[in-house]
Amino acid sequence: MLVSQALHQCSNEIMQQKQRVRRKKRWIKEKEKRNRAEICEAKFLPEMGQKSLIYAFVARGTVILAEYTEFSGNFNSIAFQCLQKLPATSNKFTYNCDAHTFTYLLDNGYTYCVVADESVGRQVPMAFLERIRDDFVARYGGEKAATAPANSLNKDFSSKLKEHMQYCVDHPEEISKLAKVKDQVSEVKGVMMENIEKVLDRGEKIELLVDKTHNLHEQAQDFRSAGTKIRRKMWLQNMKIKLIVLGILVALILIIVLSVCHGFNCGK
């Protein structure tokens, strides 16, 4: 009975925890939707020809260190607004606004952004961001990027942004193949992580049940010990009562015998 109550209580606690996680996820999704709506209220007004990758920058926090574009428009201000509203729940994020995508990659305190035509899809922009991240870290992985003021790396890194942008535009098939391989690896990794989480989750549940069972076992031992003491005490009390009753009976018999025999002269 005690074990079933403990299992029922454990099941209720697990269900309550899952409900809290679901409510938090819904709240995060609603907040992200509000951010998208606020950002896309600003009308995107590009003044450019057809180009798949339009604008890119590297930022430390909200400080833009280097940027590059060949076109004019207010996409840079919209990209900066998005930068200020990025959610902390993911290291990769994409906003869609007026047939353009604003893709962000967050890594180790730095943000890499590219604005692209929506027809390009997501593989090429993300591959571009990963390329400029690797190049940026290789060049400025020390204190230079950590202390650099705004736009101070334009002279050195703006041309690199242009080179990577041109490469990704000219080699979409190669980028697509690499992206597919990475997606497959990520999918396998995700399945493995999910299985590990399930195992750990089961381990936590089992550990919780073991703790509950251990506590119940200790309580049962205490109950048995207390029961043994009570039974011993009751037995002693019962024996005392029996001895008292027996003594009373012996005394009564003795009194009756003495009264009948007029003392101890029954044999005379």
Walk me through the structure:
- This is Vesicle-associated membrane protein 726.
- Belongs to the synaptobrevin family.
- The chain crosses the membrane at residues 241-265.
- Residues 57-161 form the Longin domain.
- Keywords: Coiled coil, Membrane, Protein transport, Transmembrane, Transmembrane helix, Transport.
- With 268 residues, this protein is an alpha+beta fold.
- The chain is built from six helices and seven strands; from the N terminus they run αββββαβββαααα.
- The chain has helices spanning 2-39, 75-84, 123-140, 143-147, 154-170, 172-260, and strands at residues 46-47, 53-60, 63-69, 72-73, 92-97, 100-107, 110-117.
- The strands form two sheets. It has a five-stranded antiparallel β-sheet, sandwiched between helices. A two-stranded antiparallel sheet has the order 1-4.
- A hairpin with a 2-residue loop joins β5 (92-97) and β6.
- The longest helix is centred in the last third of the chain and has 89 residues, at 172-260.
- The protein is rod-shaped.
Task: Please describe the topology of this protein.
Blueprint lengths: L1 H38 L6 E2 L5 E8 L2 E7 L2 E2 L1 H10 L7 E6 L2 E8 L2 E8 L5 H18 L2 H5 L6 H17 L1 H89 L8
Antiparallel strand pairs: 1-4, 2-3, 2-7, 5-6, 6-7
Helix pairs in contact: 1-6, 3-5
Membrane topology: Single-pass type IV membrane protein
Protein name: Vesicle-associated membrane protein 726
Pfam family, one: Longin
